[in-house]
UniProtKB/TrEMBL annotation:
InterPro entries: Isoprenoid_synthase_dom_sf (IPR008949), Squ/phyt_synthse (IPR002060), Squalene/phytoene_synthase_CS (IPR019845), Trans_IPPS_bact-type (IPR044843), Trans_IPPS_HH (IPR033904). PROSITE patterns: SQUALEN_PHYTOEN_SYN_1, SQUALEN_PHYTOEN_SYN_2. The gene is crtM. Keywords: Carotenoid biosynthesis, Transferase. The keyword Cytoplasm does not apply. This is Dehydrosqualene synthase. It comes from Pontibacillus salipaludis. CDD domains: Trans_IPPS_HH. Pathway: Carotenoid biosynthesis. Pfam families: SQS_PSY (PF00494). The keyword Transferase applies.
Length: 282
């Protein structure tokens, strides 16, 4: 038991370090569910860090994938605390390994330069790297409701990932990643050259808003079935959606400065959002 507790503490530090938004939102869950979220987040974070920061991301991701398959066979790779915690999650909840594999597959697309051509391609990528997280979490957040809430989880993931993309335009360009679809750039008469030159003109604002409105529609649709979640999950799920969605107006308020600045939602605004949600009738 001590080993499992220490493993969860390790995962907790990962989520607190890398995502204060998720950490705040899901801190409202009961202990068992909260700890499961920490472990699932740690898995996703490790995949992301391999791709973004690994010295040899392709071979490191291949090794991680092999470790995952070994994990599914009952092995704890390298006695890693993340796998120890995740094994406890898999034994406690009806987890579906397919979504974990889809996450790995989606992240693999980012190993080399990644330029998205169409909106369909963009939404598939958003599903693989973000909607899968929601689908991983459903057995924890709403056991027995996975089928009813599948589309809700998918939509929330797409809204969040589009928000990430709209926030991180400049940072992604530095990594040779352009997630704004070529078809959308063409629609608004904005070029790759202008994007790389950080031109923040009317055409850029229009295409940015095109994707932002889509993201906001995904947030709206994801919460239409919030009543299907157990009471203990409703506020955390709403919190995650509202906190992430708040990034979009913060960017608007900052005059669409997404090339050289990291836009964020202040701790006070986050507290206000969570407080308002808790006052709502769930």
């Amino acid at each position: 038991m001590r080993q499992i507790n220490e493993a969860y503490s390790y995962c907790k530090k990962i989520i607190e370090t890398h995502s204060k938004t998720f950490s705040k939102a899901f801190s409202l869950l009961p202990k068992k569910q909260k700890r499961a979220v920490w472990a699932i987040y740690a898995f996703c974070r490790k995949v992301d860090d391999i791709v973004d920061e690994g010295s040899s991301p392709k071979s490191e991701l291949d090794e991680f994938e092999r470790n995952f398959h070994n994990f599914l066979e009952g092995e704890i790779p390298g006695n890693d605390p993340m796998w120890i915690a995740l094994a406890d999650v898999f034994s406690s909840f009806s987890m579906d390994s397919v979504y974990f594999q889809e996450m790995i597959d989606g992240q693999r697309k980012d190993i080399d330069s990644h330029v998205v051509e169409t909106e369909e391609e963009l939404l598939l990528y958003c599903y693989q790297v973000a909607s899968t997280v929601g689908l991983m979490l459903l057995p924890v957040l709403a056991p027995g409701k996975e089928a009813e809430l599948r589309q809700s989880a998918i939509d929330l993931g797409k809204g969040m990932q589009l928000t990430n993309i709209l926030r991180d335009v400049g940072e992604d360009i530095e990594r040779e990643r352009i997630y704004i679809p070529k078809t959308l750039l063409d629609t608004y008469g904005y070029s790759y050259e202008q994007l790389r030159n950080h031109e923040r003109n009317e055409a850029f604002i229009q295409l940015w808003e095109d994707l932002a409105v889509k993201a906001e529609k995904y947030y709206d649709s994801s919460l239409m079935s919030i009543h299907e979640y157990p009471l203990y999950s409703r506020t955390p799920v709403k919190g995650a959606a509202y906190l992430y969605r708040a990034i979009l107006p913060s960017i608007r308020d900052n005059q669409y400065q997404v090339f050289n600045e990291r836009n964020f939602v202040s701790d006070q605004v986050k507290k206000n959002i969570l407080s308002d949600i808790q006052l709502m009738k769930a």
